[in-house]
Amino acid sequence: MVAFASTADIANQTARIVEFAEGVYGYVSQHDPNCGFVVGDEYVLVIDTRATPAAARAWIADIRTVTDKPIRYAFLTHYHAVRAMGASAFGDAAIVASKATGALLTERGQGDFEAEMQRMPRLFEGFEEIPGLTEPHILFDEEVTIKVGRRSIHLMHIGRGHTAGDSICWIPDCGVLFGGDLIENRTGIYCGDAYIRDWLQTLERLRAFAPKVLVPGRGAPLTTLQAVSDAVDSHKNFLVTLLRTVQLGLDKGADLPGCYRLAREKITPLYGDWPVYDHILPFGVARAYDELRGLQHPQIWTPERDQALWKAVHPGGKSS
């Protein structure tokens, strides 16, 4: 029996604070979503807000071991619930996001929230106190610069990839870049809401920053130029392999379950040991199947659509 998505993942991971440069910190786990924060002379900017107010409060308590300065800005790298739904815990902080992320929160935030709770229940403990969808206060097209003390923080939408609105946090004076889920380090690469072919080009734009430190959405921070380049290469290789494999299935006349079976055969020997791989593969195959058949924008995921996909590719498998 194949457990649905990450429902069998019940082992809690303890996030830890890692200092990358003076005043620049990551909040990193083994393979749960990574976050970060920047401490200035007067206030703090955080990168992503976690999945629930309870999870956010635990993070804020850890931030308070570093600084008691107020948190003035909370930047969302993209719209997914594990990044956005803890925002209410940050009180009066201004929520900052790209305009595309703001639009996605409005259009598909509720469906995504309900779907992600079903897929990853461990991360959504205490979801009952979430007051509603997160609404950004500050929206930007391509870039906004926020001063945190003497430091300039560049929040940038550099192209579609993991979603239509992915944005990065670039801190040029110390060479630290928070990539959100545009880049993962040897963990499952979720493509269910992706623009997969665009993502290949966006990753090259990311590489061009040549950061000294790159904090991926999941996985260990990358602390050398070679490690950054290797991670970009492995991420791109996964995307290319996914597209090629699904295209091979389409060329053979396979339906979606048939393309998934082919993907299991071809892709699992290469990437099957990556954490959450089994969770993400059906959603990635479904999006590649749609994109290669000309469906420009990802379909909205809901709990019902999730379950229908899982049952189609895992006949007799265990649902939530």
TrEMBL record:
Gene3D superfamilies reported in the protein's UniProt record: Ribonuclease Z/Hydroxyacylglutathione hydrolase-like
InterPro entries: Metallo-B-lactamas (IPR001279), NDM-1-like (IPR050855), RibonucZ/Hydroxyglut_hydro (IPR036866)
GO molecular function term, any single one: hydrolase activity
Keyword Hydrolase: yes
Keyword vocabulary terms for this entry: Hydrolase, Plasmid
Keyword Membrane (UniProt): no
UniProt cross-references to Pfam families, sorted A to Z: Lactamase_B
Residue ranges annotated for the Metallo-beta-lactamase domain, each copy included: 32-218
Residue stretches in coiled coil: none
PANTHER family recorded: BETA LACTAMASE (PTHR42951:SF20), METALLO-BETA-LACTAMASE DOMAIN-CONTAINING (PTHR42951)
Name under which the protein is recorded: MBL fold metallo-hydrolase
Organism: Bosea vaviloviae
